[in-house]
Amino acid sequence: MKIVRLSVILIMLLCCLAEAGGTSDGSVLPVAKQLDKEDAQGMLVALKDGGIAPAALVGDEAPKEVLGAMFQMIIRKLRAERDKAKSRQFEGDTYGKTLAEWAEYLQQTNSYASLLLQDVVKRCSIELSAARILRKDQGVNQDNQPTTWNLAPEAVLALARQAGWRPQSMQHASIRQASEVVWASFGHTNIVDGYIGLVDVLAGGVVFQAMTTSKLMEHPDRVALCLRMLNTEQMRVCSLEVLRKFVRNGGNVDRVELADTTYFYRIVPVEECSRLGFEPLAKSRSGPGDLLLVLGKPGHDGDGPAWMRQALE
User: Can you give the pTM of this predicted structure?
Assistant: First the structure.
């Protein structure tokens, strides 16, 4: 019966999509309410089985009423899945698999809304990985993380294309090169230490990083989204790896503090940290601040690190 019901829901949704050009803003809401009864995994299965690509829901050309309803629904589903996983101390594999499947689905389109959702899913994955590292789960290392979580230069370049930029050839662009194209596309062209536009963008970093997911959706800002995507990727490749090395070497995270870094560097030597940089943000090496960041210290409350609250608000 559940399969039949989902099929009916999908037929209704497809009809709404087909007729969206002439419908009222509330036309998709009855369908959204039906899909909203499913959990994140059930909703994704329904969309895949119905052959509905993410571009039809959260693409740049998606009808406004569809985009708004589906974006908010996906955020609610992810928040609910995270709450369930968090109540179980992030044990088990179901949550991680659900996140990976949503990431793969959303990566089919690099629209503004999809990139924002991809970042939310990725932050959920980082939080999960950090919890597993602290629990010393077997097999949690950077080498076996699926490529699903790698930030592709093409995803970054999509933000510049949305601003009207038309590339000559960026087939083999790095993330740094792609981000510099984004900065330049929005008028940030000052060159400092060889970096194009980065100093200008980082000067507004406090404002950008204060933008929650809901604010970024209500007031699209591609420079802010690009910076957020880079910060998320930096947490994945630097902060998680620092945490992994620290725990593997027997460190106690409760003893790490910025006021006195002696203990941290005794556990993870400076030379190892020097191999963990992030060129797109001119980061030459990692340190105790990266470990504290991924753990949400300071700023951690009952709902998790500040960067996770930002993602789900």
Answer: 0.88
